[in-house]
Each structure stands twice: as structure tokens, then as C-alpha cells.
Amino acid sequence: MAPRRKKIENNDLPVGLTTKLVRGSKRFKYRYISGKEFYFPPKTKRIEAIEAAKLFNAEHRNRTINLLENADKYNRPLAYWIPIVKVRVQQEENLKENAWSTFSNDCERLLSFGGSAYSKSLDLEFVTEYMVKHTSGKSVNVYNRKLRFLRKIFSYLLDEGAIKHNYAWDKRTKKNTSKKIRQRLQLEALLKMHSAAELWLKTAIELGLETAQATLEVSRMKYSDCTWFDTPKIENGLTIYGFIRVRRQKTEHLEASNVEIPITAALRSTIFNSGKDGIEGPYIVHRIGRYKAQIGENCDHHTQVASTYLSSAFSKLRDELGLYSVLPKKARPTFHEVRALAARMFKDGGIDPQERLAHSDAKSTKIYTENHVEWTRVIAAELDVFDV
User: Fold this and answer.
1) Which of 137, 170, 203 is the last residue of a domain?
2) What are 375's strand-pairing partners?
3) What is the domain count for the chain?
């Protein structure tokens, strides 16, 4: 009797693997040559079941493949090596949650594309076909990120002896030839926005200018990040009331990523005025959203303002005031340009902005260690351009 034909939606399932409804839930079932059946756990992903079945079939159903693998024990399917690579990456690179999620998703795409391909067959043609499939019509940044991912995977495969050459390095990265068209933010325009902004956005603008930090860091500044002196001190001709600690995400593996910024009179006013709205919360930049108890994406408190919301609110106010309306939207300055404006103003005032920007190439740094964490104390300086 001829075997029953597979359903169209199951054409990608390897020999022995089928699906079956069990108590109203679809389960993956594998039937051994002996006739014994094995049910995968209920939450098993389709790609995981497919790769597991392929690996089992490669070892037990095809004698030719067995001969192939016995001739070179390192020549295994990509589906065999990827889990090994993922374990090594997790142990050796200590990726943050978002970076690990992106890496894992890229691994699944790679397995879906060529999980059954044997490692010693991974050549430049394989790399090219993968890049075409996953980057066609995408930006240069996406193309280069996908290529960096393949280079990383192949470097681990090479280290494991699974391949003899990293063909991903034979593929050239692309150069971004498009010029930056973003218009610089002018102080006059920022002052107009500050006057028209709600308190929470005023606070963000003031913090961004005085600390020269980016959108993400401004949105994450907490009252608990501030250390206050019992008695104010004089530094660089300014009265200092304490300091605020900032950890820059973009340069988190460098010493300069941990910065202590002196709290001057202007910054002190910003921090104190931020609490005049009567809203209780841990974040200096805060607001009550449309849904009072809802916590925003990438936030941990219902009063915290997400960096994406901060950026969009800034741009919305800019457009409502008709600022830079003669420019296309992509060319109009965003909240990130507040940081660039601060850097220019500090530099014009004779202050090296590199430390405050948390750049590792700052000319003069004061680094000390507390609880095994190194912090860079920047020189006291303020711009004090707002009437608060």
C-alpha cells in the first residue's frame, strides 16, 4: 500500500515527521523506522522539530550520509553546529538581552535557509544566496549587519573545525554613500520649543542640554542617580551641589561609559522643578500616560517616558511650532541634536565635551573605582540658557 500523500502545508516536514491534533492542540509526531511514535513537547517550534528530525534521519535513515560523516566527523549539518555556536556565544560574549534576541532570531533564519547544509559545503555561493534572500531591498546598514552575523557564525565554525575557510570574509561590506542631511539644531529654535513644552518635555530638554546625553540616557535618569553634598562645593568657579551618574549604553564596555556629571545650579533647578507636577516616580523625566497603570515598551515604571516617545514628542512639538518646516522631515533636527548642540556650546565655552559625551578618547579624565566599577568625573560646567 502506497504511503498517504502529505498535505501541502506539510511539504517541508522531513521523513517521519508529521503533525497531529492532541486534545485540541497541534503536536509534532515522529515515527521511527520500527513504527514507534514520539510526540514532541506541546510548545516545540516548527523549525526545532524539523531540524531535530533531519538530524535523526541523517544519522539513522541514510547510510550514505552516515558514511559521509564517518569520513569527516566535523562535517555535520549546520543544524548540528548552530546550537553549539549559540552556547559558546552566550558563554563568551555576554550579550545583552536585546542583542541576544537579535542573534537568536538570525540563527533561526540561517537554520531555515540552510540548516541541512553540511558545514564543509558552506562556500561563497552559500553566503551570497543567503545575503540575497535576507537583504534584497534593505538598507546598507541591514546588509552589513547580516554580513557581520555570518562572519561571526563562520568564525566559530572555523574554530570548531567545522569549516576550512570563512567565506563570509570574502564578501565585501557596503559603504553608505548617502550623506547625512540632518539639519543642526539652533539654540534659538530650542528656546522656542522649551517655552511651549509641557513640564516633562521641558525637563528632558534641559537635562539633554546640560548633561549632553543622548535620548536613551535622558529617559533613564533617576533621582537615585543623584548624590548630594552636605555642603555645596566650588569647582571651576561654579557652585556644585552633588553629582549625577550616567551609564552610556552605546559605549558600555569602555571606561568612559560611566560618567559622573557635577550638579550645578542650572542642573539642580531642572531636577527640583521636575517634581512640581506632583507625580511620584523614580525617573526625573516622567509623565502619566493615557493609561495610568500601563508600562511603556522598554520601561520599568508606569511614569517612565520611553526614549522613542520622547523623540517623537520632541519632533511633534517642533512641527507644531513650524520650526524647520521648509526642510523635508528627514532633514529636521530631532531630540538627538540637543546633544550635538550641547557639545558645540561647551566647546565654544572652552570646555572639552568628550568626557561629558562619554567618549573614551577624552583628553583629560579623572577615573576612580567604587564597588569594582570605574567612573569618570567630568569637569564642572553649565550652559544655563533657560529661564527657570
Assistant:
1) 170
2) 368
3) 3
The per-residue pLDDT for 179 is 62
Q: Classify strands 226-235 and 238-247 as parallel, antiparallel or unpaired.
A: antiparallel
- CB neighbour list of residue 90: distance below 8 Å, 6 or more residues apart: 100
Question: Phi-psi region for residue 37, left (φ > 0), alpha (ψ -120 to 50) or beta?
Answer: beta
Please tell me whether residues 82 and 66 are part of one structural domain.
no
Q: How far apart are the first and last CA of the chain?
A: 87
Is residue 21 helix, strand or coil? strand
Q: Among 349, 59, 102, 356, which residue's Cα sits nearest to residue 210?
A: 356
Please report the pLDDT score of residue 37 as a whole number.
79
Separation in Å, CA 161 to CA 9, 58, 115, 118, 168: 37, 20, 17, 13, 16
> In which residue are the cell numbers 549625577 written?
244
pLDDT in tens, 173-210: 998 776 667 789 999 999 999 999 999 999 999 999 99
C-alpha cell recorded at residue 62: 541514510
Q: Return mean pLDDT, the chain.
A: 86
Cβ 380 vs Cβ 264: under 8 Å: yes
Crossing angle between the packed helical segments 124-135 and 97-114, to the nearest 10 degrees? 120
Is the same domain home to 166 and 193? Answer: no
**What is the SS3 assignment for 162-226?**
CCCCCHHHHCCCCCCCCCCCCCCCCHHHHHHHHHHCCHHHHHHHHHHHHHCCCHHHHHHCEHHHE
Helix (H, G, I), strand (E, B) or coil at 368: strand
Residues 258/188, Cβ–Cβ less than 8 Å:
no
In whole angstroms, give the CA distance from residue 241 to residue 246: 16
| Strand boundaries in 217-364, DSSP class E | 226-235, 238-247, 258-263
Number of DSSP helices (H) and strands (E) in the chain, helices first: 12, 8
Per the structure, the complete domain to which residue 117 belongs is given by 78-170
pLDDT, tens digit (0-9, with 9 covering 90-100), for 54-82 = 888 877 766 555 555 556 788 889 999 99
Could you tell me which residues are beta bridge partners of residue 242? 228, 263
Q: 85: closest CA among 65, 67, 103?
A: 103
Let me know if residue 385 belongs to a domain. no
